[in-house]
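Structural prep section.
Before we set up the soaks we want a predicted structure of the protein with zinc ion in place, mainly to decide which crystallisation condition to try first. Input record follows.
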Amino acid sequence: MNLEEFEITKNNSKKTGKEMLQLMKELFPICRSITGNGVRQTLNILKKHIPLEIHEVLTGTKVFDWTIPKEWNIDDAYIIDPDGKKIVDFKNSNLHVLNYSIPVNQKISLSELKNHIHTIPEKPDLIPYVTSYYSEKWGFCMEYNKFLKLKEGDYYVMIDSKLTDGSLTYGEYLIPGKIESEIILTCYVCHPSMCNDNLSGIVLLTMLVKYLKNLQLNYSIRFLFIPETIGAITWLSKNEDNISKIKHGLVVTCVGDSGALTYKKTRNGNEEIDHVVEKVLKKYITNYRILDFFPWGSDERQFCSPGFNLPVGSLLRSIYGKNEFPEYHTSGDNLNFMNIRSLTESFVTYLFVLFELENNFENNLHKFNSDFQNLQNKNDISKLEYNEKYLNLNPKCEPQLGKRGIYHELGGQENMMKQRNLEFAIFWLLNLSDGNWTIHDISKRSGIPIEELQMGIEILINEKLLQKIE
Ligand code: ZN
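Run finished without errors. Recording the tokens verbatim:
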């Protein structure tokens, strides 16, 4: 990409925010999940803009520690109250159904029904987004205020869904550059009607493909539109032989809210992409944040698992989670929550980053020192008590913790804090147990006390996921 081409693209981008929002409106109503027709429909709409290649991976296929689940499809769902009134209707919002819910069709008492309803008491007018991909359950999600008004009597519940042998669907597109070395940009296509956490990444990547696909690039750029977690694991499993081509990468999500641009560094924290994004933010953006890597979040979790340790960061705005935006994983993350200026700014920042990487390539400037590595080596070797090291026995992508009963069953909502803290300890242990980090180092980097790590170690050893290095 030369300067002139870049300028033209950048100037065109002024109307891109509008175009992104338009595409989001079209995609918003679709009920997506990690598999099923919602994903296909989404990718087919994107195909009207960019020449995506669509892949299907069959149910039952082993992908590292995981297995492609049954395909989920849904046509309708509702609850009818004792007066015969439809009080919850999938056709009004697809968030009303527990994502991946098994079918149900029966009369039920109010007290029984309550066991199958999810709400957010702190946000009584919002519908929560809840999933149960790997544990067969049925359920509805609704506004807490409406839930409080449910009257005694018999209810009729209907979920017209299917779980069948089918496949997992994802989209991919490669812009070939002068060399085979790649920049990888990924987003996820598995959330139903939510904008910031899901659609913003999809539309930003679509526009990038649209603007860049006819330019002469040095690097090849690979774009992935995959279901989160299981999709990234599937892609890595199918493309393991070509992983070494990936020189830089970013996970694109939450790029449309009004928060400041935020960069979450790669696992190593000292990759070219880390320096480039930091440089771009410093140069062009007044308000921004840079965060060190942490081993939860989006698909960087898989790309940065110790068996791959790819230079993949994430450039976003507000971090996914209720602390940063209360609309997270609720019906509040809708089109009104989107800010067109933020979308445009995010898009242009991605362009700047790509231009900078291309520029570096041309000037052969990508020689950064490895003081982080040195720092790590010098790290407190004197602390003898906690100098034991462990090895992650499943280093490629995350092991499936859910099937071992050590991960909360329902996805989507943030669960009880104590359970979450133990999960964070487990994520850090799995991510850093590559033989280089002592328990003391892991505690220091994660901020988690050694006693809490100890609990995680016991669990992981029991599950044969971790081994002490003698
Ligand atoms: Zn999410």
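Observations: The longest strand covers residues 154-164.
Flagged for discussion at group meeting.
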